[in-house]
Structure formats: structure tokens, C-alpha cells
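Can't paste images in this forum, so I'm doing it all in text. The chain is below; anyone willing to post the predicted C-alpha cells underneath?
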Amino acid sequence: MAREATEVASIAQKVKARGRRHLRVRKKIRGTPERPRLCVYKSNRHIYAQIIDDIGGRTLAGSASVYRELFLNREELDKKGVAELVGRDVARKALSQKITEVVFDRGGFLFHGRVKSLAEGARAEGLKF
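Text version of the structure:
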């Protein structure tokens, strides 16, 4: 019983730490109409990306691994592969709206693994950051 309580406490600490990191990053990063913010969120199962104009308060483009039409053959890919597809998709949507440069907001997550794969996928499609 005591072990379960410490596991719950450590999960709560991890969530708090990510929140603090996210606030620290967001103090410095601001999305503008000329250079919007590419925001990343990941859960254990899915990954989400949005391109946001913070001044106008609008989401300009977005993609996620929950979109069925994008990932019909997702069973063949690992989580990093899916993250790269999400990055490519959000970059295509941004480029169709003539957005070529963004500011990358990792959302308090460390820049490795799925977050890095998403960024590499977006860069591969031509998004600059």
C-alpha cells in the first residue's frame, strides 16, 4: 500500500515539474502572425501539434495522432514514427497557409524522442525554426 502512494506522489511531482518547465518556456516564447508558435503536447498514447497566433488568439493549423484519416496504417509505426507523421502533416497545413517560419514550443517536455521526431518531420516538410 505504501508503494502505491509513493508512485502516485512521484507522478504528481512529474506533472508539476512539467508545468513549471512549460511556464518557464512560455515566458520567453510568443507566437506572432508573422512567426506563430508550434505547440506540442503528448500523452502516453497520442501526440498533438498546433500552430498558434498568440496575439490574435487563434489556432491556425493543427494535427494529432488521433486523426483517423491520417493514420490508417498506424499499427505498423512506433510512437516516434507517428510523431514524425504528425509533424509533417502540421507543416503541410501551415505551408498551405503561407506560414514558413514558426517558434517551437516543446510544452515543457524534453526535446528528445517523440518531440524531436515531430520537430524533424516538420522541418523535413519545409517549416523553419
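The first helix runs from residue 2 to 28. The two ends are 47 Å apart (CA to CA).
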